[in-house]
Amino acid sequence: MRLIKICVSGTICFLSMSVSSVFAADTLAKIQKTGTLVIGHRTSSQPISYVVNGHPVGYAIDICNDVAAEIKKELRMPNLRVVYKPVTPTDRIASLKSGAIDMECGTSTHSVLRNSDVDFSTNYYMAEIRMAVKKSSDIKEIDDLDNRKVVTTAGVIADKYLKRTVRGHDLKVQKLYGRDHADSFNLLATGKADAFVAADSTLAGLIATSAHPQDYRIVGEVLSTDPYAIMLPNDDPKMKALADKVVTNLWRSGKMDQFYKKWFLSPIPPHNVAVNMELNKANKILRARPTDAGN
Predict the structure, then answer these.
(1) Are strands 12-17 and 195-199 parallel, antiparallel or unpaired?
(2) For a surface tag, which of 53, 114, 120, 151 has the fewest beta carbons within 10 Å of its beta carbon?
(3) From residue 16, how far is each of 23, 25, 235 by CA, in Å?
(4) Do both 68 and 186 map to the same domain?
(5) Cα 80 from Cα 172, distance rounded (Å)
(6) Are residues 120 and 30 in the same domain?
(7) 3-state SS string over the chain?
(8) Is the peptide bond prior to 78 cis by the omega test (within 30 degrees of 0)?
(9) CB neighbours of 163 closer than 8 A, spacing ≥ 6?
(10) How far lies 164's CA from each of 56, 147, 156, 170, in Å?
(11) Which of 177, 202, 226 marks a domain boundary?
């Protein structure tokens, strides 16, 4: 509970609870009442959160399974029903705010601009925003995008960085938008787009799980480094504390490294091809000093 000091007429002061504290959410109480935990997930954010044979899998899914286990323990409900619900970049925040999902486990960037709508756990991944192209393409750097068709996924923050970079380099780019990451990648694969700008993990995961991984490469400068975290209901300190504890313990115990090896360095479904992404510098810093800082 947060108290604020209110003064009137310059002399009389009293303490009052802030409005946000008075109306703080209690997601754990809701979960206990309904007997169900609903987790939002992405369908094509390989290898972090995607679907294989109708089931959500990935790095973030393993992390959130541990959060679900902690919620069962906290509520003393070992038989708590856990439901995974697909969300998209355009509806994930609305789904969380409406209570349709209790948390979201995907590739959501902790942007401080989103803090008025949702909250975030301790970060579990630092994504580098880059671009994927066909190996046959002559595109190697951002300046090579001049007069080209470039796709990003509707509703993702990578689009902001692309627009900023295009303006800064004075480029003329024809922008395309995919409905989700799979749709964006398909535009690249079919030649309708010359480049696909997204997080390195998403690009590498889609390439690894595509029909012809050898046909693509990731190129160009890093446009931004973004923290990924579990997206949570706003102003719910109990839910955030629980999620923070789980994610921080995963980093400190070394279990997060096991998850990383499983999803980034080992063969993954459905084609059993490895993404082969070594831990980047930003993730090494996060591992040493876990934080919930946004950008």
Answers:
(1) unpaired
(2) 53
(3) 13, 18, 17
(4) no
(5) 53
(6) yes
(7) CCEEEEEECCCEEEEEECHHHHCCCCHHHHHHHHCEEEEEECCEECCCEEEECCEEECHHHHHHHHHHHHHHHHHCCCCCEEEEEECCCCCHHHHHHHCCCCEEECCCECCHHHCCCEEECCCCEEEEEEEEEECCCCCCCHHHHCCEEEEEECCCCHHHHHHHHHHHCCCCEEEEEECCHHHHHHHHHCCCCCEEEEEHHHHHHHHHCCCCHHHEEEECCCCCEEEECCEEECCCHHHHHHHHHHHHHHHHHCHHHHHHHHHHHCEECCCCEECCCCCCHHHHHHHHCCCCCCC
(8) no
(9) none
(10) 33, 16, 14, 10
(11) 226
User: Looking at the domain assignment, is residue 232 inside a domain?
Assistant: yes
Q: What is the pLDDT along the chain (295 residues), one digit of tens a residue?
A: 344 444 444 444 444 444 344 456 899 999 999 999 999 999 999 999 999 999 999 999 999 999 999 999 999 999 999 999 999 999 999 999 999 999 999 999 999 999 999 999 999 999 999 999 999 999 999 999 999 999 999 999 899 999 999 999 999 999 999 999 999 999 999 999 999 999 999 999 999 999 999 999 999 999 999 999 999 999 999 999 999 999 999 999 999 999 999 999 999 999 899 999 999 999 999 999 999 999 9
- Identity at 119, one-letter amino acid code: D
- Of 226, 251, 279, the residue at which a domain comes to its end is 226
Instruction: Say whether both 275 and 201 belong to one domain.
Output: no
CATH code of the domain in which 284 resides: 3.40.190.10
Strands 44-45 and 49-52: antiparallel
| Token code pair at residue 295 | 């950008």
Clarify whether residues 30 and 122 are in a common domain: yes
* 256 and 119 within one domain: yes
| Direct distance between the N- and C-terminal alpha carbons of the chain, in angstroms, rounded to an integer | 26
Q: Report CA Rg, the chain.
A: 21
